[in-house]
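Researcher: Quick test of sequence recovery. Tokens follow.
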């Protein structure tokens, strides 16, 4: 509950900061300073999902799409600290995402958040829940909606924030995934490499490396899409499975393992979350300003 309360507070903080220049991608009017011409709407989303925030300092006319993994019925990985406090991947991801958004906005970037509260991005119906858990069908559609939002946002770069999990609590470290099958695979790899290097430098956790998304050993992320063998948010077109693939360089970071008690403590601690957000900020800045 403590973690959840913290997340809600952060969400309110960000909304407060953004008063007057926040716009919903899915059709609500946006202020001129934040407007993107002809935003296609993304149907069926939560009201607090797919939200655009103008820069708070300077205007670089570049957009970073920040996706906090999981949310709502989908907790992601569940871990515990050494003192027995439960840490949910969805909560840590959202808090880091909100902190990263604040940093990048002050760097002059427009930020579009896949979600800003403890919800899925897609608005779920009763049929999307099975004994309180999200169905794999709903998870697939939720991930597709996140890719659709990144396209609707006209984002220049996509960063998806997750935390890792493993059955052995001694396993820890940092890893980052990208898709090698896209026409912009080289940019994906560069982004993933920049984010991974910044996270490892800042957190000092084990460097587990940069991987392509067909090497990801996490069936919950891809649900029944085993044959697709890519992350839905990063991967290429596949008729009937990924009809609206993300159209910008993207990477999925796993800064720490929440199943490792020491790393769960960092991932759920405000100072640790700030460190992760600052590392991601520096990785994004390196990618955005470095040689193409
Ligand atoms: Zn995850």
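Model:
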């Amino acid at each position: 509950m403590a973690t959840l309360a913290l997340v809600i507070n952060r969400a309110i903080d960000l909304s407060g900061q953004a008063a007057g220049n926040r716009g919903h991608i899915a059709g609500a009017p946006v202020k001129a300073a934040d407007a993107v011409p002809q935003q296609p709407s993304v149907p069926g989303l939560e009201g607090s999902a797919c939200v655009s925030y103008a820069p708070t300092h300077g205007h670089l006319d570049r957009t970073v799409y920040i996706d906090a993994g999981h949310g709502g019925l989908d907790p992601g990985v569940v871990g515990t600290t050494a003192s027995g406090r439960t840490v949910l991947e969805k909560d840590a991801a959202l808090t880091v995402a909100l902190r990263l958004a604040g940093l990048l906005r002050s760097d002059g970037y427009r930020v579009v958040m896949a979600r800003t509260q403890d919800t899925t991005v897609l608005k779920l119906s009763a049929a999307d829940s099975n004994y309180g858990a999200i169905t794999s069908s709903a998870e697939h559609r939720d991930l597709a909606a996140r890719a659709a939002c990144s396209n609707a946002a006209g984002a220049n770069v996509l960063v998806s924030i997750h935390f890792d999990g493993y059955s052995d609590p001694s396993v820890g470290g940092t890893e980052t995934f990208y898709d090698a099958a896209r026409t912009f695979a080289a940019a994906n790899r560069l982004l993933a490499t920049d984010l991974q290097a910044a996270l490892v430098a800042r957190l000092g956790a084990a460097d587990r490396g940069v991987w392509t998304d067909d090497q990801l050993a996490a069936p919950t992320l891809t649900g029944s899409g085993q044959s697709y063998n890519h992350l839905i948010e990063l991967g290429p077109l596949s008729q009937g499975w990924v009809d609206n693939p993300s159209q910008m360089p993207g990477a999925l970071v796993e800064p720490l393992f929440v199943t490792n008690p020491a790393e769960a403590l960092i991932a759920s601690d405000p100072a640790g979350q700030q460190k992760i957000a600052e590392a991601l900020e520096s990785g994004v800045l390196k990618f955005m300003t470095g040689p193409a």
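The longest helix spans residues 270-289.
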